[in-house]
User: Fold these one by one.
Assistant:
Number 1:
Amino acid sequence: MPTRPVPSSTGASRRVELDEDSGTVLLRTDQGAYVFRVDRAAGIVRHVHWGAALPLADAVALPPWSEHDNSFAGRWDGTEEYPVDGGARFGVPAFEVRFADGSSPVEATVQDVVLLDHDHVAVLLRDRTRPLAWQLHYRVPPDGDVVERWVEFAHTGTSQDGDVLLVRYASAHWPLPHRPDWRLSSVHGGWSAEGRLQRTALPVGETALGSRRGHTGHHANPWAALDAGDAGEEHGEVWVVALAASGSWRITAQRTAAGRTGVLVNEGHEGAELRLRPGGRHRTAASLALHTAHGFGGASRAFHRHLRGHVLPCPGEVRPVLYNSWEATGFDVSEENQIALARRAAAVGAELFVLDDGWFRGRDDDRSGLGDWTPHPTRFPRGLRPLADEVHRLGMAFGLWVEPEMVNADSDLYRARPEWVVHLPDRVATELRHQLVLDFSRPEVTEWAFGWLSQVVTENAVDFLKWDFNRSFTEAGVAAGGPDARRVHVEHARGLYRVLDRLRAEFPRLRIEACAGGGGRVDPGILGRTDQVWTSDNTDAVDRLRIQHGFSQLYPAHVMSAWVTDSPNPLTGRAVPLRFRFHSAMAGVLGIGGDLTRWTDAELAETAELVAVYQDIRPVVQHGEQFRLLAPGEGPLTAVQYLDGDRAVVLVWRPSTAFGPQEPPLRLRGLESAARYRDEDTGREWSGATLMGFGLPLPDLPAGDCASGMIRLRRVEGSGRDA
């Protein structure tokens, strides 16, 4: 995962401290501490503490976990930072290999502990007799509460030693403190139903989340939060772990009957093995984790800050209001109808026009054309440049939909290069959505992709790419076969990263949206190379409230693309007022995706007004801290608050009406108690203490279902600051 350069250690506060006599390492975060101890005699790295802040002297004195020793127990189970497969260990290993002779047990020895900078430490280990070494890396960024971990493996032998197969290669094992009980939070769902937040008791045993699909997946997302069952939105201890990788993945929470709990985080899944040849190396994806005492909301805001501060390529920018033509024209695109839509989009305030699918040769439907990335000769006989020039003349940036990782069997590319698809040579390749997956683990394929992408961007002055990915892997292997034939589940995403990194280096002003049939590839790894993600193909404004609630658990509004589309909704058939649709989409990066040629003059006028309002509140929504005031489904109302400096924005939705008592005021969060805040639309004023204690009186919502409101608050100049 790319991260921006870390400030020099000169004058920087030390984030990592080492007591050499005891081998104790203390990692400091803004709110807490992470402690482990290197036991050279036993050849292990023992976990000591993860939670509240403490001084190094206390960390040195803390005893590690001790378990009753008997011949049926693994004395180290649950206590190690990175458990290997070998010795009396019976838990899930973080690290499992197969040597050339077919054996697998590992005997670890500690070589050294190295402070690489004020915020980075590595523990160097190797097998006692076999040609294999690995390094455990820990890094604490200069601000925030996230700890980053990854592992680097090296085959240290010669050709006589043969290859080493990495069977399991976790980025990290995160041991948790002892608690009487544990609860697991994660998101689940499916295509157009992403982000369904679920909190369940963690049973004794192994609980696995993951994707075997070759991409992050709609059905789960590579993060998990754990608490002792007593945390709320703004109170209680919460631990969150995540993986910065965009291929197949697996997170395993393991709880033992003895009370030990830990979480393993790794790329790949069962059978997605990696071969190390002599001299070969492998660096895992990064795992990110944090602890907070401020509940699920505090954990979310801490992760949002980390992503903005250390992961996103251009975090300081505001994302433009876009218009996308897909739902208006489908595959029936032409220079004429796209220009007509562009003029209407510019008139209502759109800042970016995106031409979607159907613009390239052979693309008359979803059965053909993928792979042949030149303009459609009959739909765009003059090419795309005249459209791009008109879009720019209208004052908008020009964007283009692409799906570089896919190919139709009915395409010139597939006819010329059938071996480029993810396949097994003796199996029938399964088509999904009439397409196959190109193998981006192959350098010749990624070189081809970069070549045509850079040409298209250059020739058509493209400012923005909507990068789609519309099917999961099947028959995932490589033609060469062998025990690591399924490495494509990991290496395909790394090939994708190389293409994206090259594009951003070649075109620094190019902005990219990640899409995978909606939210099928959302993770900190892809966010290190893109500017926003398409949250879901479901644009129903009511459904989106739940999807966006789950999304916000880890990811900030700054990257959450949300559209206003036609009513009734094309997917659900639900009729929703324009105001509600806009308020739903204003909770993230606003886009418009309806057929503007069918919208009435009144709707277009209202759209222009609402776009202008969003442009006013956009810095607060995209860059401010987010507070989930009322969760969808827990009552008649859903509400979210954004706070940035002196301004706050509150969005309130009532999806359906029901008879009952009047809803109480909304208790806001994060304000200055002594300050006064003015409603920018009504002029009414309240103190921060009143807004957080008594609450904000609810706005007058329209009658009936799908009613919504928005409140803009500004701190009154000169009003008192909190002590």
Note: The mean pLDDT is 94.
Number 2:
Amino acid sequence: MLTCSKVPETVCAVVRPDEDEHRRTHHGPGGEHVHDEQNGQNPALIELRRRLADGLAQARLTKEQLGVQAGLGRTAVSEAFSPKKRAPSGATVAALARTLKLPVEELLALQRDAAGVGGRGGERPGPGRPIAEWEPHDLEVHPAGPGQTATGSGASGTRALSGYVVREHDRVLSEAVRDVAAGRSRIVILVGTSSTGKTRACWEAVQPLAEKGWRLWHPFDPTRADAALEDLHRVQPRTVVWLNEAQHYLGDRAAGEGVAAAVHHLLVTPERGPVLVLGTLWPEYAQQYTALPAPKEEDPHSRVRELLSGHTLTVPDAFDSQALAAATAIAEDGDRLLADALTRARTDGRITQDLAGAPELLNRYQHASPAAKALLEAAMDARRLGVGLHLPQAFLIDAATDYLTDTDYDQLTDDWAEQAFANLARLVHGKQAPLRRTTPRAPRRPSIPSIAADTPASAPAGPVFRLADYLEQHGRTTRSRLCPPASFWHAAHTCLTHPDDLYNLSKAAGRRHRLQWAHLLSHRAADYGSTDVLCLMADLRKKDGDWREAKRLLRQAADGGNVDALHDLAEMREEVGDKEEAERLLRQAADGGSISALQRLAFMRMSAGDREGADTLALEAVGHGSTGALFLLVLARNEAGQQERAERLLRQLADDGNVSALLHLVMLRESAGDREGAEALAQKAAVQGNANGLYNLAVRREEAGDTVGAERLFRQAADHANTDALFHLAVRREEAGDTVGAERLFRQAADHGSTGALFHLALIREAAGDREGAENLALEAADHGDTEAPYRLVMRREEAGDREGAGRLLQQAVDHGCTDDILETLWPHGLDPDGTPTPPWQPSEYAPPEQHVPPGTR
């Protein structure tokens, strides 16, 4: 029992009024019960407030002091202790518990019980439901067998799962689960190819949290990105946020960056935790989101890249020997599903793919009828070139014709398409179909107009189909060097109606130097409301010097809500000296969400001498991930002689998790002569997933003549998989004559995305006479962004007199989508889909649909 004789008077003053108020409000004369929502009706709330009051007394704080330390308002603290108020929110309880050094999880459990009693007093429940109530296949875990296992009399059946084999990535996931169970929020994104067990690993990992009563939320409806963006702010502590197939959240053109920012805020706000964010990605999406943009290019994934940095976990394609031994033991213990999979997949270790039906899908494709195979290949090409998940039947039928040989085409029956679609709809082991009919979900909420909204796309007429994930990825791998035939492009032009599909295909055609189809598809995309393609047309007009037409197209795109068009128009106005109009357009673009517009506005304000205005805009841009704005802030303070203020700002941003600020600090400390401090900061950045600081210090030390210190830092950066450091060390090994060690380091750098290392390996293979290996590596470098790599190899072959080899690689590079200026010289009018030069043709200016003139009327 707490008495005033044992605590300071200030504490008694805090505790007693609440007790007196409780007696006055809930008891009449003689102590009879009048109205007591706690007395016997909400024991959890009584216990919660009792423990908070005890904690307050032991901490020897007033409520006002408690609020300050907990970061809460006076009203929130007062209502948390008042018996007249409803149960405090989970965030409030968590903040109070941490400040008072009380067990957070226990008090949150009491809060949840208190909030739910009789439907009184509680906050709106957060999204999701208890993990125990989820069925794994509802979370997109692949079934492992065709049957169902009944869970008891009258219980609904659950589709079978094989026994689970724990691998290295599962151990890392387990550490994350232990962290969140201890009260620390975490995010882990599993990266691996299709059907490698990523989603199943996440499901197994959260089972300990199910036993602790955690919730799980899978944002899905009306679209994944919309659902996540709408409700992430409502996520409560002890929730697993399930972002399976995370490209649908983080890669969404309109909402991806917003989702990343909201997830980041959830993770770094202590009172909202603990939470666990789990996601899965294919490697190509992870690479796309984490790749740094080229100088002067837009950075569409800055927040996503920041979110993923240091938080991805690779899931291997195959079981290693240890995992195979564990799978064998489970199979021998009676797991028929694993035993069956091991009979087929023990040699290559692709157990999860076998369980998910991938081999049968591949078998169905390889042994399909010519018509069915043509439909699948048209679908594969559509998906890899940027068409959405839902492929219209009319498009597939029209596209498929040129995938057939003349003989197969002549043998088609009138009902060939009907038979082929029926065959491809048959399920593989009851789980997947190579090409299945699907019904897209219609939006269930009214769209909210925004400056970034394109014209809504009309739904495709007729049925739509979805290609199996495994076949989609198989197509991306095996067909990457093929340009689709003419029927594909013609079907796209006549059958597709979604502006994004048409825009993506116009870009794909342009990258393959199929200029005529790129031109036609871009006009078609614009007809259906794509403002992005109008910006693309404007860029082409600017290249040709037609500034008037470029301005007209940009204005049309801006009127359609495209913020990039506003930004480009502002640049054009600024170039002719109309800074007032440029700033107005930039502000409009910034209001629409353009970070580059914010950054440019900050530079304009700085140039105009408005340092305060520039600071405000730059800080806002930095908050959205702009490294250019960060540089501006530091530069402005240094020029004003405020180096200490600049460093203080960088430290504040670094403490908030901004790695770019941390890297700026590294070089600032190095320039100030604080080598030890610079290294410590660089090590901190490396732990957070960015070893560029260590590499930059190594370069600086080497330039200063400190070769020993530089070598040490190069090695440290390489240990953190820094590709520049690995490449540097590889060159050193090569110069020293250690070709084996050099090639190993080049390969290590290449495995982490170094295009320079890939090209260097290509030259090594070329010198060794392995022409095909060299071609593969040069094209792989192009896949990673170095589109010039194949052409550099082409030139080397030309110089060596190998015209045949040069021509073969040139054709592969073009069909692969590697653009180069030399193509304009070789084929000024472009290429036809079959690779032959396109006859001369004249591009037409774009006119909106309402201005189209029917043929023959002029």
Note: The first helix runs from residue 9 to 26.
Number 3:
Amino acid sequence: MDTIIGTIEKGKPFFDKLARNRYLKAIRDGFLSAMPIIIFSSIFLLIAYVPNIWGYNWPKSIETILMKPYNYSMGIMALVVSATTAKHFTDALNRDMPENNQLNFISTMVASMVGFLLLSSDALTAKDGAAGFGNALLGSKGLLTAFISAFIVGWIYKFFVSRNITIKLPEQVPPNISQTFKDVIPFSVAIVFFWLFDLGFRNIFGYCFAQGVINVFQPLFGAADGYIGLAIIYGAMSLFWFVGVHGPSIVEPAISAALLLGMSENLAAVQAGQHATHVLSLGAQYFVVCLGGTGATLVPCLMFAFLAKSKQLKAIGRASAIPVFFNVNEPFLFGAPMVLNPVFFVPFILTPVFNIWLLKIFIDFLGMDGFLYTLPWTTPGPIGIILGCGMKLLPCVFLAAVVALDFVMYYPFFKVYDAEKVEEEKNATNEVKAEKEVDVNGEVLDSKKILVLCAGGGTSGLLANALAKGAKEKGIPLVTAAGSYGAHTDIMKDYDLVILAPQVASYYQDLKKDTDRLGIKSVACQGKQYIELTRNPQKALEFVFSVLEEA
């Protein structure tokens, strides 16, 4: 087992590099920026269609009113993502551009949206009853085209701006007006490119480019929804996490379109009175594959808390239980530890795969509908399963089955690890080493602002809260905040120090380029170090103090 893990660890630099890939990061961050749309719109889906379970159907007029916020948010999801992806891709490109010759992300966002509309929407004429854009491909079906539009715009802008092929105005002209003229040439070239490409594509194939992309990738989406495809996707996600790389950052960009498309097609099938057959969906990933977080760690965490004989494991389980219940499992992953722990290699990789296979069995053979609604990823897994699948009997049966499966998968390995820890505790000396408390200089931390970043904004809150608690105890006016990496670029200029949590530590090189430009400090934490800091406010203050004191 050590040999296997050692081999995997040798590939960690490659995995880190893959996670930092500017295209994958732009897709992930662009998708994450638009996540409030998905969560918000699902609320109206629940209100509109959950009553159907008990035989009550809203009158059509009321249903139309309830669905309007959904149609005007989720219905233009791809249009929004074309802009957010362009924004994050522009930020990535700007890291390699001179500080005095940056790409204008507002302009690239607008250009990407216009280009996406040209590639994906048919113009409605008076004979259709209205004038405007056809919206059939502006939602989840158009996500892949949205990504393509964003990248093409970024390439075009970088080509022209980096070569100073722009309209230049005298220095006396205000910067905001100069920037407008500077963007005219790349903006015009981008839009003309999309326009001409659209004309040619439609004339050759008879349909728009967005539909062509769907036609090409539909077989791949179908294969991803099979047993082998699901195993590859979620086995890889867990494997990356096991070696300390944030797996979703690598895997999710490749399947993000399929996740949303599966959910929307499931809902459409149920509304049409048909069986929702798609397994691959956001809900399935959040609450089945990641029941308690990556590795499906809810059940083993509860084992630690209530079944462990080892005092250390019991303490870790009980301290981590509440965060894990809300799918924030980093305290458990690094505190147990689960990652890079040979004992848990097999269940950590295979349990998520078996969970999604069990869901597919329930859908394919027992007639259970797949996930219909998207809930926040911090929704407790058991609640997410029942609500996401429509509050029916079969999802309740599935919940019981998946919990039992996870117990069977983890219990033998848990017993082995617990026995090891009990033996270690028996052999441990009773000597208690006194730790010297570092005198934290309050003047250095006075009114400083600290931003902690993680993948989704959950884990970062643990350290931010510990710092706030420590500062309050010491009477130091320290300001702390938690956020998600990718949504930080516009706010980090207001902080003195940016700290990366372990699962986004691979992004440190990119972050440092940004913070160096702003003249602020940055640092990345590693697994056990981070957990120790979240549990010890004094050590958290000492850590921040040491970073800020560095020359």
Note: Residues 16 and 506 are 5 Å apart (CA to CA).
